Amino acid sequence: MGKRKKLIRIYSEPAGGWGALKATGEALAIQGVAVSGAKTLLQMNQPQGFDCPGCAWPDPKHTSSFEFCENGAKAVAWEATAKRCTPEFFAAHSVSELTAWDDYDLEMAGRLTHPMAYDAASDRYLPIEWDDAFALIAKHLNALDHPDQADFYTSGRASNEAAFLYQVFVREFGTNNFPDCSNMCHEATSVGLPQSIGVGKGTVLLEDFEHADAIFIFGQNPGTNSPRMMSDLHSASRRGAKIVSFNPFRERALERFASPQDPVEMATLGFTPISTFLYQVHVGGDVAAIKGMMKAIVEADDAALAADLPRVLDIEFIEGHTHGIDALLADLRATTWDAIVHQSGLSRDDITNAAQIYMNAKNAILVYGMGLTQHHRGTENVQQIANLALLRGNIGREGAGICPVRGHSNVQGNRTVGITEKTSPQLIEGIERAFGFTPPSGHGHDVIATIESMMRGDAKVFIALGGNFAAAIPDWVRVQAAIRKLDLTVHIATKLNRSHLVHGRDALILPCLGRTEIDIQAEGPQSITVEDSMSMVHASAGRNEPASPYLRSEPAIVAGIARATLGEASRVPWEHLVANYDRIRDAIETVFPMFQAYNERIRVPGGFHLASTARERIWATPTGRANFLVFKGLEENPYHDDPDALWLTTMRSHDQYNTTLYSHSDRYRGVFGQRDVLFMNPRELKKRNLHPGERVDIVALATDGIERIVRSFKVIEYSLPDGCCGAYYPEVNPLVPLYAFDPQSRTPSYKSVPVKVRRAAAVGPDSATRAVVIQHEVDHHA
Ligand SMILES: Nc1nc2c(c(=O)[nH]1)N[C@H]1C(S)=C(S)[C@@H](COP(=O)(O)OP(=O)(O)OC[C@H]3O[C@@H](n4cnc5c(=O)[nH]c(N)nc54)[C@H](O)[C@@H]3O)O[C@H]1N2
Ligand SMILES: Nc1nc2c(c(=O)[nH]1)N[C@H]1C(S)=C(S)[C@@H](COP(=O)(O)OP(=O)(O)OC[C@H]3O[C@@H](n4cnc5c(=O)[nH]c(N)nc54)[C@H](O)[C@@H]3O)O[C@H]1N2
Ligand SMILES: [Mo]
Fold first, then answer.
1. What proportion of the chain, given as a percentage, has pLDDT over 70?
2. Which CATH architecture best describes the domain 84-182+410-606?
3. From its record, what is one biological process in GO terms (predicted)?
4. 470 C-alpha to center of ligand 1: Å?
5. DSSP character for 591?
6. Between 584 and which of 3, 161, 352, 403 could a Cys-Cys bridge form, CB atoms 3.0 to 4.6 Å apart?
7. Residue 363's pLDDT is what?
8. What are φ and ψ of residue 312, in 5° steps?
9. What 3-state DSSP class applies to 353?
10. Architecture of the domain made up of 187-405
11. Per-residue pLDDT tens digits for 508-565
12. Ligand 1: lining residues by beta carbon, under 6 Å
């Protein structure tokens, strides 16, 4: 574990550059994969290689030479690690002991090598045979009063093949309970965009970035979370496209970037400026900023009309393709600049300037991430992006469109192949057509409903295809107590994590192959397929020897569980499908006709694009048109009246992949060796008579009477708008009340938590102590 050197300093270098190369080398060295790791990296995103297990940003045609990406390299190094988490490891450490470990140290134990089952007598995980593990799952599932007492979680790394088999199994078993990571991520996109434009995905392709005159980035941190996007932004900036960012943080990569592939920048320590303007919008102030931009556009259009100049609004598009402009215009005219400025934290000049750049651009792309979706009104936030695009017809033509940047590398594909708690008639008919059974209709549980069912004591079994549910969810101190009351928890995983320790009476850890590894089934080596953020579907095949001979592929594990649970009566030929994944793809094609010629098309380098109606200006909405949807008012959040309140946003450091920590540092924000920090601006510190480096307790301003506190966070002086603060996920998730979610998409409000800070009560500085204290405190008040 070792002692970490803690340091706070201003990071003055550009993002990327030599710092990124150095960090990549260090990541490979930490995981002991220096030589084979480098070889592994060369296969990443190659036509015959594997898809990067990191983010969902596409690769140019998927055929280019090796694209350098620091965080992609880390994702690979963490999977291709030389470290192993063996039965000996579990014999040496009880579950109670491991529970006190830091999340970083848990994953540093290495790749899981054997199926393991929890033994209460010794408080340890002990090895179990695969068939016995499947039988144990079957016993629990078949003993339920109703299939809805089980919940089946998916994290977005699973392949299309694994995710498809999983949903078919769960539906044949009899439930639509599919909580998935998307429920905590881009659900606001999946719910919001269909109402606006008839599809729940983005409308741009990578090529569009070469033709955009302006790119707007709302609440997304590409230098850390989709670093391959930096090469597109880098070239856009160089050819003179304007880039405008809205972010409470001055994220370094949004300011300036040195491309490790640019020999001149590397040799001269030069860089390329990225954002022409970076507006530090108030946490939760985006809707005000976007409405302000739209108001400025309407004012400019009024002026143009009066002066008999060309219109600013794309009237032809609006008349030919949209619905609802009058209501939008009326709302914008009724919204005052004072209110917009107050709520957004930006000046009228700044907003008008951003609007001017947008109006000057023939083609504009609107990019957004979690800074927009993870809010109480996330769905409506997303719809304002659509409104802004529609005003100037910036959709369905080259160089223009909406670009939600997805999270996990295959989260979008998981949805496409049927991981959804909302069952459509098409899905039901498709499954009937392919397998001859009728799946349950109606809606199952999403993440919030799953948690509610656990808290009520209705849920009995929780099965997870990847992920780290118990750490990624809101309010985890409270929810973990409910998870511990389940009859069975099952985790299909590559690495040990918190969720494996927060377990039911019976518990299994089932180790699976990762994307970098060779997958051999009865009929030979297999490849899987994934869909990226721009709806490109392509094949991926690992080349590394599996981390252990006992691993099974995710499709094989799902098939094993399915056969044991459903027996010979199942209508699905599980073993036959798994023997050759081409058959799984044929079945996907039968259920979802948009995958026509699936197996042929993935054999073409680069794969294929899943058609998007909005991109063709076909509007699959109830009105048959693209809809302008009005956001009433400007308030992101209902409780905004406490003068002492701060709005806490929670985000990722540069050295983490969701709950997986690569280190305790966050290079671009100048934080080293620590994560228990709270970013605040100098004025807010002064107001509270706090000095940088002092420790505070953060208290959630909740309305349910439960006290939520995390203790002893170090305050750091940072450039942020007044009234805001920021901290890392998942450490502060206990502050996010379960009830705080967007009522439409039910995405948790991770990016706007009202809190107060107070000088810390004296507790030890290490995070393990702090977690225990929170648990105690919350339990005490619950
Ligand atoms: N290396 C790496 N890559 C990843 C991930 C990872 O953890 N590590 N996670 C993957 C996943 S699942 C996802 S969903 C994506 C996440 O990628 P992002 O969407 O970039 O996620 P975050 O870091 O949570 O937050 C994004 C930005 O929102 C800003 N922000 C916070 N609150 C607000 C607000 O109210 N308004 C605005 N405008 N901005 C705000 C933050 O300052 C931050 O810069 O990345 C994926 N890729
Ligand atoms: N406060 C706050 N909370 C958040 C967020 C936030 O911004 N703020 N973001 C939310 C978002 S956007 C998301 S997507 C969720 C993420 O939630 P999850 O997707 O549940 O979490 P991850 O941390 O990505 O899961 C990591 C684990 O996945 C397993 N794993 C890795 N690779 C594989 C594989 O190939 N197969 C299998 N079976 N398992 C594998 C490993 O065991 C690893 O420990 O968190 C959400 N929670
Ligand atoms: Mo995500």
1. 93
2. 3-Layer(aba) Sandwich (3.40)
3. cellular respiration
4. 20
5. H
6. 161
7. 98
8. -90, -40
9. helix
10. 3-Layer(aba) Sandwich (3.40)
11. 999 999 999 999 999 999 999 999 888 899 999 998 999 999 999 999 999 999 999 9
12. 54-55, 71, 185, 218-221, 224-226, 246-249, 251, 281, 283-284, 286, 369-371, 407-408, 649, 651-652, 656-658, 751
